[in-house]
Each structure stands twice: as C-alpha cells, then as structure tokens.
Write a structure and sequence with these properties.
The complex is a heterohexamer, with one copy of chain A, two copies of chain B, one copy of chain C and two copies of chain D. By secondary structure, chain B is an all-alpha fold. Chain B is built from six helices and no strands. The N and C termini of chain B lie far apart (about 45 Å). Chain C has a three-stranded antiparallel β-sheet. The longest helix of chain C is centred in the first third of the chain and has 42 residues, at about 20-60. Chain D has helices spanning about 10-15, 20-30, 75-85, 115-120, 135-145, 150-160, 165-170, 180-195, 210-225, 235-245, 270-275, 280-285; strands at about 35-45, 50-60, 65-70, 95-100, 105, 120-125, 200-205, 230-235, 245-255, 260-270. Chain D is globular. The chains are: A mainly alpha, B mainly alpha, C mainly alpha, D alpha/beta. Chains in contact: A-C, A-D, A-F, B-D, B-E, B-F, C-D, C-F, D-E, D-F, E-F. At the A-C interface, α3, α5, α6, α7 and α9 of A face α2, α3, α4, α5 and α6 of C. Bound molecules: adenosine-5'-triphosphate (2 copies), magnesium ion (MG) (2 copies) and phosphate ion (PO4). Phosphate ion binds near residues 98 and 197 of chain B. One adenosine-5'-triphosphate binds near residues 74 and 78 of chain F.
C-alpha cells in the first residue's frame, strides 16, 4: 500500500486520531494560571480578613454610630471620624460638581465636534498624559495654585487650606479620567447610529442629545462613578493641600463658610492614624478602613451594577 | 400578508406576463392557420393576403417577446423551474413563429395559383387535415396556457392523425395529379408538408411544456 | 417651458434648503460651549507645568549643586541626594512589578482563556473592586500585616518595622488588579475568530493562548505593565506608611530597611508643611521633586503609548 | 426641466406637432417620472490630496431606481454621499463640479446641509435602527423636523409603505433591536421615508442580509419608486439587474503613477447594461471577467 | 499571473467547450448533408442509410449538448455577452439539429424511391443546389467557430443563391415532370425544399453569431 | 471503503468481472474521487435543550466540492463544525448519531479532537489571519504539529496552491494584515492546507468579500479539489451553483409548538438541484419564492 492509502485506511486513521499521551505541559500551564488567580484572590481575602478582624474591637466596644459620629481626637478612647467622614463626602460632591460636567463636555467636544487637527491631537495626548500624572503632583498643583496663589478666595480664614482647595485639586485629578472614560463610552457608540440620525436631518446637537448620549450614558455613568471612587480614596494630594487630621470644629456655618473652612478626609486620617504609635489606633485605623471600604463598595458596586444592567439592554 | 406570493412576487408576475403574451401570440398564429385553411379550401385570395399581412404583426410581436424573455433571463438569474420556463419559452416562441411562417407559406402558395378547383376527395382531405393541424396547435396553446404537463404525450398521438391525413393527401394527390396539373399537385403536397410541420411544432410546444413542469421531456426525445 | 409658477416653486426649494438661521446660530453656540470645556484640560496642564517649573527653578538656581549628590536625602538639613530617591523608587517599583506582573498576567490569562463564562462573570467584578482599594489601605496592610506577619517570619529580625520590601509588595498588590484588568480586556479584545483559526489548525488551548492570543494582545499586555510601573512610581501612600523614613533617608539598595521614594519624600515634606520652611529651600525642593516625577511619568507614559502604537501599526 | 435627455420622443413630437405641445407640458407637470431630480456635472471628489472620483456627469430621473455599481473602491459610496451632503461629515472631503437637485445647486453658498438631509432619506449598509422603540425610531425624524402633535399616523403610514406594519403593529413600543435583520432594514427604510423625502439613498442596503430578506427589500424598493426616487449603491450586480431602471457602472482608473481614481464608465437603461453594454469594461465586470 | 484569463477562467473554458462541441456537431451534420447529396446524385441507397443512421448519434449529441448549455445557464448566471452566447447557442443547436433532420428527410425520400435516373439538367441543378446549401452551412459553421459577426449579412446573400437554384430546380422539375413520373418529381421538389431550409437554418446560425458578438441581429430580422 | 454508494459502477463491475477487480482496486488507491470521506448517519445536534439540527444523513465524497445551503439558522454551520469537532468548543453542544471519517467514528471514545482538527483545514466567514507575518501564518500549523526544520518549502507550496505565491513572494515577512480582504482569505486557505489535510471546511468563505475576490476564491476552490475534499457552507446559492459538485439543501422545520429545527431537505448533484430539484421546498428556495 502506498502512502496515500495508508493515510486513508480506517485503522491507520483511527490510530492517528486517537489520543496518544496526556498533555502534561498543558495541564501544568493551567495549574500555574489558576494558581496565580487563587493567590491574587487569597491576598484580597487576607487583606479583608486582617482589616475586619482588626476592627472588631472597635465595633464591639463602641458601635458604628458612635465611632462614625464622634469628633476626631488624639485620644484613642474617644477618637471618632466624623469630620473625616463628612469631609470626604463633601469633597466628593464638590469634585463631582466640578469635574463631571466639565469632563463630559470636554469629551463630547473631542469626540463629537473636533475635527482631526493638530490641536485636537495635542489636546488628546495631553489628556492621556494628565491621567498618568501621579496624584501627588496634583497635590503640588493644588498647593501652588489653590492654597498659595488663590488662598485669599478659596479659604481666607485658613491660609487657603479649605474644602474648595481640596475639592478643586481632586476635581483636576479626576478630570482627565472622566474625559477619557467618557470619550471611550462615546467612541463605543456605533457610527452607524450617528449616521442614522444625521441621515434623517438631525443637527449635531440633536444627534448627540437624542442618540449618542443615551447610548453612551451607562458607560459614562460607570466611568465617572469609578473616577469618583478614585477621588474618594486619594490621600496624597490632600496631604499637600492641608487635610487636617486633628480635631477641628464643624459647627454650624453656611455653605460658603463650610466650603471655605478647613477639612479632613478619611484617607488622610488613615495615613495619620497608622503612623501613630499608640496601640489603640491600630484598631481604630482598621475600623476607619472598614468604613471607607464600605463606602467604596457602595460606589463601585453601583457602577458595576449599572454597567451590567445596561450592557444587556444596548447592543452595538 | 403584504406580499401574497412571497418575495419574488414581481418576478412571478413577469413570468406570467410573458406566458400570457406567448399564448396570445400563439392565438394570432392559430387564427392565421385557420384563416389560411379557409382561404385554401374556398380559394379566397383576399383572406390569403390578410394572413400574409397579419404575419408582419406576429413577427414584430415575436421579436419583442423574445427580447423580453431574454431580458428577464439577463436580469433575474433564473434557475430550476424558472430557467426551464424561460429557456423553453424562447423555444416555444420560435416554434409558434415558425408555425406562423408556415401558414404564410401556404398563403403564398395560394396567391401563386390563383383560381383552381379541388377534386372533392382532396378538398375534404385537405379540410380534415388542416382542421386536425389547427386542433393540435390549439391544444398545444391550451397546454401552454395551463402549463399542462400531460399534453406532451397526448399531442404526440394527436399529431399522428395529422401525419396520417397528410399521407393520405399525398396518395390522393398522386392519384389525381393528372387531373389537377403538376403545379397544383406540387403546391398541395407542399401545403400538406406545411400542415404536418405545424403539427410537429405544436407537439414541440407541448413537449416543452412538459419539460417546464417536470424537468423532463416526454418519452419521445424533444426537438426531433 | 419655464412658466412663472415653476420658477417660484424652484425658489421655494432653494429657500427651504437654506435652513432656519436661528437653529444654525444655536448650534454654533452649543459647539463653542463644548470647545470651552475641552480647552480647560490644556489650561490645567499648563498650570501644572507652570507651578512646578516656577518653584523648581528657584530651587535649582539657589541650591549648591554638590548638595544634589551626597549621602542621602535630608531636605531639612539641606542634603538633596536625588539618587537616594531614584534608588528607592526603582526598588519599590521593581518589587511591585515582581509581584504584580506574574499574578496579574496569570489571573488575566486564566480568566480570559480558561475560566468558564460563569466564573468570569463572578470574578471580573471582584478584581475591579480590588482595583478600587485606596492606597492608604494597602499601606496599612503592609505595615500591620506584611511586615510583622510575613516578612518577620521569613527574614526574622533582619527586617525593620518600616521597610521598602513591604512597601514594594503593597504597591505590587495594589497594581495586580490594574495589570489583570487591562490585560484581560486586551485578551478579550482578541477576536474569537483568531482562536477558532488556531483550534481549527489543531492547536491545544495552551498553544492557542501562548502563541496566538497573547501575541495578538501584546500591545495591551505591555501597556498594562508599563501603566502598572508608572503607577508604582507615582504611588505615594503605601510607601509613606510602610517604608517609614519620615525625615529623610540614607542612600541604600537594601529592601529590608527603611527608605524613601520620590513620592514618599514629597509626602514627608508635606505632612509638616508648616515646618517646610525649616530649611531654606525644603519647600521648593518639593516642587523640584514634583517636576522630576512629572517628567519621569511623562516619559513612561509616552514610551508606553509609542510602544503600543508601534506594535499596533505593525499589525 | 428644459434638458430632458431621457424622453426624446416627447420632445420630438412636441417639435413637429404644435398642438400636442400643450398636452405634453401639462402631462409632464403632473407626472414626474423621467424628470431629472439630480443632475451631476463633472463632479469630482477629493479626500485631502487624493482624488477619489473624477468627472462624473449623470442625470438621475425621478421615480426610478438608479443603481450605482462597480468594483470596490470605485467611489460609489462617495458619489452617493455627495447627494445628501453626508460627505460634509468627513473633514477632508471636497466636492467639485456641480450637483443640482431640482435645479438647485446643493453645494451653493447658503445651502444648509441639515436641511438637505431632511429632504432625502438615507439607508445604510448595515441596518442601524436607533436603540429605541420601533415607534420612536420612526417618529424621530418628523419630531426634529418640527412636526408637532400626534405622530401615530405618520408612524403607521411609514411602516405600511415599508411593508412592515403588519409584522410590528402589535409591538410598536418594543425595542427595534428585537427585530430580525431584514425587518430592521425595513424599519430603517420606514424611518427614512417618515420625513416625507422625495428621494431615498441606499448604500448596499442588503449586503448584511440573507437572500430571503434581500428579495423582500428588493420588492419593497420597486413598490416605493412610485412615490420616491431611489438611488442605490450595490456590490451585487444581480441586485442592480433585478431592481433598477438605470444603472451607472463605475470603475477604478489607474494612472501610470499609480493614482487610482473612480470614473463613470457607462450609464444607461439597466436592461441594456445587462444584455448589451456599450463599454467592454462594463461587459467584463458584469460577466465576471476582471482582474 | 496564475489565472491567465481572470477570475472566471473556468467559466470561459466551459463556454469555449460548448462552442467547440456545437461546431463539432455542426460538422457531423455538414457531413451528413454532403453525403446525402452524393447519395441523391448517385442514387446510392447505402449512403442514404448511413446518413439516417448517423443522425441517431447527432440527435443524442444534440440532446446532451443542449442540456449542457442549459446547465451552464442554471449554474453560472450569465449576463450580457455570455447570456447572448448561451441563449443563441441553444437556438443554433436547434438549427443545426433541424438541418440534420432535413438531411435525413432527403435520405428517407431516397430510400422510398429506389432506383431512378435523373435527367442530366436536373442532375446538374441538384448537384449545384446541394453544393450551395452545404457551402452556406459550412460557412455558417466557420462563422460560428470564429464568432465572426460579419457572417450574418454575408450568408443572407449566399443563401439567395441557394434559393435561386431551388427555384430553378422547381421549374426544371415542372418541365420534366412527365418524364420522371409524378412521385419522383414531388420527391425531388421536396429535396429542393429541404435544401432551401438547410440554407435558411445556416443563415439563422450566422445571424445568431452576429447577435452573440454585437448584441444585435443583422439588418433582416432574425428567425423569419 | 466497503460502503461506497456513489460509484456503483465500480462495485458492480468488480463483482461481475474478476480480472478487472485488481485494476479497479489499484486505480482506487491512487484516485480517491468518489470514495466517501465523511459519512453522516442520523446526526442531530443539541445546544443545551435546543435541538438545532435533526436527522442528517449524507455522504460526502472525496475530492469533490460539497455545498451546504439553506436559509439562515437552518444549521449549516452547526453541521460543518461537527465535521472537525469544532463544536467541542461550545460548552452546551451535543452531537448525536454517527459521523464517520474514512470509516472512523469521529466521536468515538478515544478520539482526540485536536488530532482531528489537524487533519482538516478550516476557513472562516471573515478572513482571520493571525496578526503575524505572512510566513508565520502559514508556518504556524506545521510548527505546532511538530514539523521541525526549515519550513520555507511548505510555506511556498501552500501559498502556490492557494494561488497567492506570486502576489506575496516578495513580502513574506510583512504583516498579513497588509493584504487585501481577498488575499487574506486566500492566505487563510493556504494556512489551512499547510498542515496537509485531506479536507478543507469552509464556512461562508466569501461573504465578506467583493465579487471580484469572490470569483477568485471560487476558481481556487475548483483547483484545490483535485487534492482536497472541500465542504463549503454558503448563503450564496449562485456560489453553490457555480462551484460545487454536490449540494445539500437544509431548511428550518417549524413544529406546532414553535420548535425550529434544521433538517436536510435534499442532497444531490448540483446540476440537478439547480435545474430540476426533487423537493418543492428546494425549488422555492433557489428560485427565491419563500417567506
Ligand atoms: N473618508 C475617507 N478618507 C480618505 N479616503 C477615502 C475615504 N472614504 C473613501 N475613501 C477612498 O475613496 C475611494 C472611493 O471610496 P468609496 O467608499 O466611495 O468606494 P466604493 O465604491 O463605495 O467602494 P466599496 O464598494 O468598497 O464600498 C477609495 O479609494 C477609498 O479608499
Ligand atoms: N452556540 C450556540 N448556542 C445555542 N444555539 C446556537 C449556537 N449556535 C447556533 N445556535 C442555533 O442553532 C441553530 C443553527 O445555527 P447555525 O449557525 O448552524 O445556522 P446556519 O445555518 O449556519 O445559519 P446562518 O446562515 O445564519 O449562519 C440556530 O437556531 C442558532 O440560533
Ligand atoms: Mg461603498
Ligand atoms: Mg452559518
Ligand atoms: O424548419 P422547418 O421548415 O423544418 O420547420
């Protein structure tokens, strides 16, 4: 029999098609990959376990309400996180108000209006770079700009170390991220939808408002919420623009006064407390972290929920 | 449903239209065949001339219709039954047109031999033969109009009668050739030949109808 | 043929085609508004560079240059040895990459190529949540768990309470989700048809992963690593908490002792920013460091982008 | 309306028999078939420095289906998009020559492209309904064109004309994405005619559809031409043969220096193009003898 | 280039093949036409029988070839020149096949009238006529093989010669009918008629060649 | 080779004339045309609870082109992917019945799907070259199959067979993505045959290509069938008519309860299918009278 016939004779074909050896390399490879995933997850588990178990004494002895509601203090027995908690939320709102509209609008311009000119390209590259600049450099910017230069406006009473300065700094920090995620969401809107709208005589703005934005909304929402989460966790820039970690009064004052007043934030407090030598602050820090993680989980969870929710609805 | 006949509604309509026009053309030819028989039997020159004149219209319609079918083929990429239909229709048109020409040939023969009297036996044979041929042609048209697959085999038999009559006519002519004069005898034998051919064409039409419907020709090979 | 009626009908069409002036004006204003927003980003970067360069220039022009090369980084004592900070930065970022790269890439590859759709749907969000953990938390974790529980067990007393190794590991953990998430996205973006082509040729899952999917996604994989490195270089709080050295640090490559990175040095300077005036130019050195950091990350980002683009162009 | 190359007979008879002229004029005013809707004269389109198509001169008659065919890259889409100024969306595109629509220069100085597009429907290669309900898809065009009040009638009428009403009348509020590909494309056609255009431009409207859906859309096009002028770009020569009344065949002209420009080779009655094309290049293309 | 004749190389080959086979079929028929003339002139019954027998093969080849063309149409969606070619080829095949039948008709006539002598004048006329007809048919085949568009008009003229000779033959027969006997006279006039038709078929072939090449029939409307 | 329903003559003559048996057997070993390569018996495929196709019985002869046609969703792709066990990649897919390849049950207990795929080339709907050089695309298959040493010859031979060599021989190291769509698809064909398979499975290989590239690929397929058995899924009936030797027409059978299952309606000589199909459903489909 010649080679061709060999190739087609049923028993030789059967032999050729039958599994010969176990694929050890393949199995090993799978094990290694799975291992790295397991290790990564284990680290997360350990982290959560350490923090939560470390915080248990606080919950046991003080309770959530008391811990969150108490004023900050140097005494571990009575120290709470109220100003930091309140400050973080305030900063978030301020940041959102500053960064989201500007960022989304900028992204709309870049994706929907701008033509592909040298200027546009520079702006785009610039934004990508800004997103990669370390957060502490934004702190420097805030320090130079909002604290030193504009201190008279941002916080005349507090040498510029105010909520406004902190909020603006975080706002600038997240702005490029908001622009990039929004632009990405806009880019994910199929051109065919725009063409469909333009084809029936929609103006650019009508196209954006009725078709592009509604489709991009979940993506924009997810991206911006995640960027707010980022702002929430930042400590370094706030250190530079003067986040306070000791007691200060948050007595009744109007909105402007509040904004121009001193501030604290939970991440800053974590930093400060973790460096304190007293053993009592270990548990307090852990408890503080648990509070932070819960807030973050709420924020990010919302984002992921929104995304999963809309991803099913809108195909491209 | 909006499209009662499916997605190629208009294509079907085009095919129906072509079929209808072909049958109409056939009816014109049939009319000519009948008139030319009448003219032959009653020795009517005017009728013969009318037949010749009518053929001009037939030819024009034939050309137009042939082109129409050709254009449908070019534009609709027919396959299977549709292609069988269109290709066969082209052939059927040709058979019909040829039958028209044969009627004209008869008429022309008549105009060449003005004024004659047929022996009664021949007259009656001629009458039967041309009626038979016209009948077969008529049946072929009906089979075409109704896309009746069974007609192919049936007409083959019916055409045998025409052939028999033609044979009888030849014999009769040969017997009487001296009475009638050679020219008339030859002319009449030609008419017999033409009527035989008309019958053949009709059979071809019917066989192609069978082909359209079934994809196969009846027993006897087609076009022979 | 041109009757009067036709002419006017024609004009109507032409007039109609001219559109409504009010609408055209409104569209123009909307466009200007969006343009303004986009211009802000340019303003910010100009502001950053301007604010950094100004103060940094003061620093450079007033500090004795020999002081930039000394035994360590002690700004309040007027010693500004930059190499100390570079060494620390590279040490931390390097350790971080040793942790993040294998775990991140491995996890991503598993999730994208091996995991069942259900597993992926379950774990991908977990990784994203992990990505959102603030750096101070990792600092705390490094200080209170990695050092005392893990490192002490391995190195014994050789390791200090504050050390660069713990900081590096902390930063590494911080960047695992980044690497995993970006890489996984890149791997998922490889068209299914390429995998099918590979399977169709009789390739196993491993061959397909390693020789088709990863090479096709290489730009994304590399980008994720560079991004992670850049993030590690710019990371402040983990080091500031876990590596100690608040006041300053001697030049050292030893990961088991305390040390200083550029960012941590800035944080250290800033904590007591009231006292920043302790020395003449300590405050300005902050901006000098900021400028350096800005430059380094800029270069990294540009490199990563160049690289990615080059790889993309090739294919 | 004074240059009407397509119905010579009318012009001829008008010239010889004065009494019939009146009748002809009158009938022409009511019957628009054969009147020229678009008139392209020496149209050329550049993308930046690259001349995509050159020297296109053709008249598109009203209420007929005109097909643009030709090999990939010959500029069919480019020419089509000139007709409703969709090319304005591409930065680098420049149109030369003149394109008259009802005798009006579409690229005249004060013409608003948005207004132009409102008068012309457009259907794209892939069905691209908006991710909204079927109803909203249709209603969008009239709404932004300023039509107030209840749009139910407009929606129903458009869907009926697009031969989709029966299939969707019970689920107007459902997402357009729940429809099959062919239904989506018919929805897009309904959307395109909802603004009451007099012309519908289609760019390979069936290339993403299966043969069944394709034949449906073709039937629909033939139905629509009683009301609308249709210009269709298609890769599918058979499609052009099946549906169009006139066919323009483009090809790519390669200069010595490698410049590739789209040119119009032949334009005429579809029956003629597919039975007896004038230009050997047309013949080679439609019979598949190229390359 | 790998595909010297472009993307539809194989399709072109199929068309060429069909054309070649058709010409070959035509050659068989031409051969039969020539042999039947010889048989007629030399009164050779065996040749006549050979002609009749050969027609069986011709018919079989015709049917096969017609189906082949039909299948090409079904499978290749021809348009323009290709479609003209295939549709015309179907018709040309039919014309050729009919010509073959006519040759058989001549042969059958001969077998019916065994043993005769032709008057020399008629013999020479018959010889010229059948040579002419065969010539016209030959030219038509050459036009077909070369796809020579000019042949349509040319053959129309050449066929006139056949027609004239047939006319002359009729006259001669009518003059000598008494010498030859009525039967032979009628038979010979039929042969004239058949040769005339062969000429007509040849002209049709050539006219369809013109149509294939130019898309138009020569001056005279086709198929008439 | 003991069940060979397609070449009855050989079997018959073998049975009656002993001396000729030897010759027949010998000639069969070199000439494989007409031998059955795949033999499907009552094949059914489920995706989870959903029966996608049911009761498919057909024999695919060697060295011929077999086309699978039918409306969307009738299971053409599903059947094709059973042949090289690509369905294994889909979690929920289950194959019932038997599929013999050279008489070997492909779904037998010890059959390694990876080995199966190595012996069969596959070409997909959209050209999907690897993002590597032209050379590496071709060399990939042989390399992973363990072929050592210089692969230049294999690469050249495969490219020649795929009618691509002349066009790419000077740029083997360039990215495959720099090729046109049609060239990419021919590259994919070259890649599929580089591992020396005896069958090439193609799933709508031209649906993303323009008519010119399509006709090129069709020519190529006809050339390839002297060496390979080709099974092609196509939406394009004309394509099936043009290239295939045998055509299987599938359709979707809708049960009263709305269950939609793909079934084989007719399988036979392509010429017959397109001139005289047996089943009226086939006729309706190929003549466009459906829906
Ligand atoms: N936006 C653009 N920028 C630059 N060149 C373009 C652009 N759009 C098209 N072209 C070029 O113009 C030429 C004509 O393109 P067009 O899309 O009109 O061709 P087409 O005939 O529609 O081809 P296809 O059949 O592939 O759609 C091509 O060479 C194409 O590369
Ligand atoms: N992975 C899958 N999971 C579930 N159902 C599937 C899957 N793949 C295909 N199907 C279903 O199986 C049936 C047959 O699908 P298949 O893709 O084989 O059809 P097809 O004839 O190739 O159609 P098309 O022409 O659209 O490609 C369809 O109803 C389809 O929805
Ligand atoms: Mg196009
Ligand atoms: Mg499929
Ligand atoms: O062509 P005929 O005279 O034989 O019909």
């Amino acid at each position: 029999m010649n080679a061709a016939a060999m190739r087609t004779a049923p028993d030789s074909v059967a032999r050729a098609l039958t599994t010969r050896r176990r694929d050890f390399k393949g199995t090993l490879f799978t094990v290694v990959l799975l291992g790295s995933l397991v290790v990564a997850m284990a680290i997360l588990g350990t982290l959560l376990f350490t923090v939560i178990s470390g915080s248990l004494p606080v919950w046991r002895s003080r309770g959530v309400g008391e811990f969150v509601g108490s004023q900050m203090s140097a005494d571990p027995e009575v120290a709470g996180i109220w100003q930091a908690f309140y400050g973080s939320l305030l900063l978030m709102v301020f940041t959102a108000v500053i960064a989201l509209p500007t960022g989304i609008a900028a992204a709309i311009y870049l994706e929907e209006y701008a033509s592909d000119t040298r200027f546009t390209r520079i702006v785009n590259a610039n934004i990508r770079n800004l997103a990669g600049v370390p957060s502490i450099v934004y702190g420097l910017l805030g320090l130079a700009l909002f604290v030193k230069l504009l201190g008279g406006i941002t916080g005349p009473e507090v040498h510029g170390r105010s909520v406004i300065a902190g909020g603006l700094t975080l706002g600038l920090l997240v702005l490029p991220i908001v622009i990039i995620t929004t632009a990405e969401a806009l880019r994910a809107v199929p051109t065919s939808i725009r063409e469909g709208a333009v084809g029936v005589g929609a103006t650019p703005w009508q196209t954006i408002r009725h078709h592009v934005l509604p489709v991009a909304a979940p993506g924009v929402l997810t991206g911006t919420i995640l960027s707010l989460g980022r702002a929430f966790g930042e400590a370094a820039p706030l250190l530079l623009v003067g986040g306070i970690t000791t007691f200060f009064s948050t007595g009744d004052s109007n909105l402007i006064e509040t904004l121009q007043g001193r501030f604290s934030a939970m991440p800053v407090l974590v930093f400060s407390w973790s460096r304190l030598p007293q053993e009592g602050f270990r548990a307090l820090t852990a408890a503080l972290i648990v509070v932070m993680l819960i807030v973050l989980l709420l924020i990010n969870g919302t984002a992921i929920f929104l995304r999963n929710r809309f991803e099913k609805g809108v195909r491209t | 449903m909006h499209h009662p006949e499916g997605a190629r509604h208009r294509f079907s309509e085009a095919l129906d239209g072509a079929l209808r026009s072909t049958v109409e053309l056939g009816a014109l030819v049939l009319d000519n065949i009948r008139r030319v028989s009448e003219a032959l039997l009653e020795n009517r020159l005017d009728t013969a001339r009318a037949v010749i004149e009518a053929d001009g219209e037939i030819d024009a319609k034939y050309s137009a219709l042939e082109y129409r079918v050709f254009e449908i083929m070019a534009r609709q990429q027919p396959v299977a039954g549709d292609l069988r239909f269109l290709v066969s229709l082209t052939r059927i048109l040709y058979e019909i047109e040829r039958s028209g020409d044969l009627a004209v040939n008869c008429a022309k023969g008549l105009t060449r031999r003005d004024g004659y009297t047929l022996p009664p036996a021949i007259h009656s044979l001629l009458a039967r033969m041309s009626r038979s041929a016209a009948d077969v042609f008529h049946q072929a048209l009906e089979a075409l109009a109704a896309l009746d697959a069974s007609a192919g085999a049936r007409l083959n038999v019916a055409d045998d009668e025409v052939d028999d009559l033609v044979g009888m006519l030849y014999t009769a002519i040969a017997e009487r050739s001296d009475d009638m004069g050679f020219d008339l005898a030859v002319e009449l034998s030609r008419v017999g030949r033409y009527m035989e051919r008309i019958g053949d064409h009709a059979v071809n039409v019917a066989e192609h109808v069978t082909f359209i419907v079934t994809g196969e020709f009846p027993e006897e090979p087609a076009g022979v | 043929m041109e009757t009067h009626g036709e002419e006017s009908a024609m004009q109507t069409i032409e007039e109609q085609l001219r559109g409504v002036p009010a609408r055209i004006r409104r569209e123009r204003w909307i466009r200007r508004f969006f343009f303004g927003a986009a211009a802000t980003s340019v303003v910010i970067s100009v502001a950053i560079v301007a604010s950094l360069v100004g103060e940094a220039w003061t620093f450079i022009s007033n500090v004795d240059l020999p002081l930039l090369r000394s035994i360590g980084w002690f700004p309040r004592r007027g010693l500004y040895d930059i190499s100390t900070l570079f060494a620390g930065t590279i040490l931390v970022a390097g350790i971080a990459m040793l942790v993040a790269a294998p775990l991140g890439l491995g996890s991503a590859l598993y999730l994208s190529e091996y995991a069942s759709p259900r597993t992926r749907r379950l774990l991908k969000p977990v990784i994203e949540v992990l990505a959102g953990i603030p750096s101070v938390v990792l600092g705390f974790f490094a200080l209170t768990f990695i050092t005392p529980t893990v490192l002490k067990a391995v190195f014994g007393d050789a390791v200090g309470g504050f050390n660069m190794l713990a900081a590096g590991i902390g930063v590494g953990i911080l960047t695992i989700p980044l690497v995993a998430s970006v890489t996984e996205d890149a791997l998922r973006a490889v068209p299914r048809v390429l995998r099918e082509a590979s399977y169709g040729l009789g390739a196993s899952r491993m061959t397909t992963s390693v020789r088709v999917v990863v090479p096709a996604a290489v730009s994304g994989v590399v980008a994720s690593l560079i991004l992670a490195f850049s993030r590690a270089v710019g990371e402040t709080m983990v080091v500031a908490i876990a590596a100690g050295a608040t006041g300053g640090s001697l030049f050292s490559w030893d990961p088991l002792t305390n040390g200083q990175t550029m960012t941590a040095a800035m944080a250290a300077l800033a904590i007591g920013s009231d006292r920043v005036r302790g020395d003449d130019y300590a405050f300005q050195s902050l901006f000098f460091l900021g400028l350096l950091l800005f430059g380094v990350t800029l270069i990294l980002n540009v490199t990563s982008e160049r690289f990615v683009r080059r790889v993309r162009q090739k294919y | 309306m004074n240059d009407e190359p397509l119905s010579e007979t009318t012009v001829d008879s008008g010239a010889t028999a004065p009494p019939r002229v009146r009748i002809d004029v009158a009938s022409e005013q009511t019957r628009t078939t054969g009147a020229t809707l678009f008139s392209l004269r020496q149209v050329a389109v550049d993308y930046g420095d690259f001349r995509a198509v050159n020297d296109i001169t053709l008249d598109v008659p009203s209420n007929e289906i005109t097909a643009l065919i030709g090999p990939s890259g010959c500029g069919k889409t480019t020419v089509l998009r000139c007709l409703n100024r969709m090319n304005d969306l591409i930065e680098s595109a420049r149109v030369h020559g003149s394109i008259l629509y009802h005798g009006v220069d579409l690229y005249g100085p004060h013409i608003d492209p948005v207004e132009v597009r409102r008068r012309m429907g457009m259907v794209f290669q892939k069905p691209n309904p908006f991710p909204k309900s079927i109803y909203d898809n249709i209603a969008f065009g009239p709404k932004i064109a300023g039509v107030k009040g209840n749009l139910d009638d407009v929606v129903e009428e458009s869907l009926r004309r697009a031969a989709l009403w029966e299939e969707v009348k019970d689920k107007l509020r459902e997402s357009a994405y729940a429809l099959s590909g062919g239904q989506q494309q018919r929805l897009c056609i309904a959307r395109a005619i909802a603004t009451n255009p007099d012309v519908v431009l289609m760019d390979e409207p069936c290339s993403a559809l299966d043969p069944i859906a394709t034949l449906r859309i073709e039937e629909l096009m033939i139905e629509l031409k009683t009301r609308y002028t249709i210009v269709i770009v298609t890769h599918n020569m058979q499609q052009a043969a099946r549906v169009s009344d006139r066919t323009a065949f483009f090809t790519v002209d390669v200069k010595e220096d490698g410049q590739r420009t789209g040119v119009l080779v032949e334009y005429g009655d579809t029956g003629m193009i597919f039975t007896k094309p004038d230009d050997p290049r047309t013949e080679d293309y439609i019979t598949g003898r190229f390359g």
